[in-house]
Design goal:
Elements (H helix, E strand, L loop, with lengths): L3 E2 L10 H12 L10 H21 L5 E5 L2 H13 L3 H4 L3 E5 L4 H12 L3 E5 L8 H7 L4 E7 L11 H11 L5 E4 L11 H4 L3 E5 L10 E5 L1 H5 L23 H40 L3 E4 L8 E6 L4 H10 L2 E2 L15 H6 L3 H4 L2 E5 L6 H21 L1
Parallel strand pairs: 1-11, 3-4, 3-5, 5-6, 6-7
Antiparallel strand pairs: 2-8, 7-8, 9-10, 10-12
The structure holds 4'-deoxy-4'-aminopyridoxal-5'-phosphate (PMP).
């Protein structure tokens, strides 16, 4: 039987169009964009076109794209770059975030706290970003709120725009960074609709190559020198991220953005109907042995479920043995057997979180695949629970 890939939030297969661009740029337009000859100029033009594509995909009318090595680096740049931007921030600046962020946001923030910054986590209990708590926590010392638009494990969508309004009301230096890794090209948004000053996106989640991503930064933040670079050296990308740009990957990322943007609506509809089908099937055929996590506002491509009484690792391995791929917790940290902070922040108990798997869908998936998955899960539950 063909493999069934339900781990699309971990990564995706590169699309043929992006792969073709990657190959062409690697072999034909291989110049260094900083070189002053024809090949260099060609490479520089390729970067410009890719930037246009990413800006268009973000619906950004202004601002700059800083190309990075992926979502992780973009988040690090946004957080450290903002926190370290001004001397006075370093003496008492407050950093806000949500409970249950990806490690590439929570770890830099924890590090900055250990260096003397104040840090507070806003509750996301029940998949809802607690705006009242934000009102209490944000004050004039707040220099950053870094939050996801969509939680990568629960699929919950947070109200970034209202958060942005509260932040601005409370602090003249309040900057909103959105980790849009899981929302980019999946749900419509723009920097304006999020009220964001910085946005992280990653190429490999949208069928671009791995190891490339971007941080969008508003013109106002750049003008105000509200962010400093982390990688310094040759001064590439207007000094905001030194190092020779990964031109083939950036070009392929731009192409993946172009292709996804053209088809975003129809792909979104397909995934939404697959989600409804999956929910219906699980409810009909698995009953109380599976508890679906259904946040009040959720994306279609992520569905977390607790397989009652079984360890997620066991279920994941049993499914993998049948050629069905899902994840437990975040794929980026699966090798550590940590209980998912996102599920705990949602309000799940440790034992429930330890029994949860994430199914992440793509428009490539089919109802037949969902049928196979539910049948396999039903068998696994029957066998494993009998053994107990
Ligand atoms: N943020 C979120 C919400 C993610 O899901 C991921 C990837 N799992 C990242 C950041 C990191 O992105 P990358 O893999 O491109 O470093």
């Amino acid at each position: 039987m063909k493999d069934i890939y339900f781990d699309n939030s971990a990564t995706t297969r590169i699309c043929p169009e992006a792969l073709a661009v990657y190959n062409e740029v690697s072999t034909t337009h291989f110049g260094n964009p900083s070189s002053r000859h024809r090949l260099g100029n060609e490479a520089a033009e390729i970067l410009k076109s890719a930037e246009k594509e990413v800006l268009a995909a973000l619906g950004a009318r202004e601002g700059k794209i800083i190309f990075t090595s992926g979502g992780t680096e973009s988040n690090n740049l946004a957080i450290f770059g903002r926190a370290l931007a001004k001397e006075r921030f370093r003496r008492g600046g407050k950093l806000l975030t949500t409970a249950g962020e990806h490690a590439s946001v929570s770890t830099p923030l924890a590090l900055l706290q250990s260096l003397g910054f104040q840090r507070a986590e806003i509750s996301t209990l029940g998949g809802v970003f607690d705006l009242k708590m934000l009102e209490r926590e944000a004050d004039k010392s707040t220099v950053l709120l870094s939050m996801m638009a969509v939680n990568n494990e629960t699929g919950a969508v947070y109200d970034a725009l209202t958060a942005s309004e509260i932040l601005r009301e409370k602090s003249p230096d309040g900057v909103l960074h959105i980790d849009a890794t899981q929302s980019f090209m999946k749900i419509p948004f723009t920097p304006k609709s999020l009220g964001a000053d910085m946005i992280t996106v990653s190429s490999h989640k949208i069928e671009g190559p791995k190891g490339v991503g971007a941080l969008w930064v508003s013109s106002a933040l750049l003008k105000n020198k509200g962010i400093v670079p982390l990688a310094v050296g040759g001064g590439q990308q207007d000094g905001l991220r030194s190092g020779t740009e990964n031109v083939p990957a950036i070009a392929a990322f731009g192409e993946a953005c172009r292709v996804y943007r053209e088809r975003m609506k129809e792909r979104g509809k397909t995934v939404s109907s697959l989600r409804n089908y999956l929910i219906g099937k699980c409810q009909e055929e698995l009953g109380a042995s599976v508890s679906l996590l259904l946040p009040p506002s959720a994306v279609s491509h992520i569905l977390n479920m607790e397989i009652v009484g079984l360890k997620s690792e066991t279920v994941l391995n049993d499914l993998s043995g049948r050629g069905i791929y899902v994840s437990s917790g975040s794929a980026c940290s699966t090798h550590k057997r940590d209980i998912s902070p996102a599920l705990l922040a949602y309000g799940k108990r440790e034992s429930e979180a330890d029994s949860s798997i994430r199914v992440s869908l793509s428009y490539h998936n089919t109802k037949e695949e969902i049928d196979c998955f539910v049948a396999a899960l039903s068998q696994i539950i029957a066998t494993r629970c009998k053994k107990k």
